Amino acid sequence: QQQARQLADAYLPMLNPTDFQLVSSPLSRAQETAIPFQEALAIPPIINTNFAEVPSPGIALADRRNWLKALFAKKITELEKPQLVWRNNIISGIQSLEKNTLIFSHFMTINAIVGWIRGSKKVVSYYPNYCSITKIEKVDNQFSIKKLGKELTTIIQ
Fold it and tell me: How many CA atoms lie within 13 A of 40 on its CB side?
């Protein structure tokens, strides 16, 4: 909550509330990060399942860490169907945006976007920190990374 408030304090002065929209993953931690923006601007976030965290169907919570560790080492071509559909939905979601958008999402989701723009074959090629901001620009349906957010050292080892 403190990180989300600090993020809003730093970025709200730069935003024109009539010029953008808020979009959030359906997961509560992403929605909670959006709250200071929502409250200050009176703009409710649009909940968009395209920007949810990577699905792990059939993986027990106790096994998720090891599953994620293995996923970090994979290439896009090695993804299983649920994860490939998830990645393709993220890309479709980004491509469909028509106005400036703040997206509140997750580590793997940001990796899917950054990797796609960079043309990376890796599932994970970037380690965004909590409440970091990655700026992406879309001009004539061409995407570029304007700024990567602060990186962290992952705890999934």
Answer: 20
Show Cβ contacts of residue 140 under 8 Å, excluding neighbours closer than 6 positions: none
Pairing status of strand 135-139 against strand 142-147: antiparallel
- If phi > 0 it is left, if psi is from -120 to 50 it is alpha, else beta; for residue 106 that is beta
**Side chain identity at 77, as an amino acid letter?**
T
Q: pLDDT tens per residue, the chain (157 residues)?
A: 888 888 888 888 877 767 789 999 999 999 999 999 899 888 899 999 999 999 998 899 899 989 999 999 999 999 999 999 999 999 999 999 988 899 999 999 999 999 999 999 999 988 888 878 899 999 998 999 999 888 876 555 5
Q: Which token pair is 139?
A: 């001009």
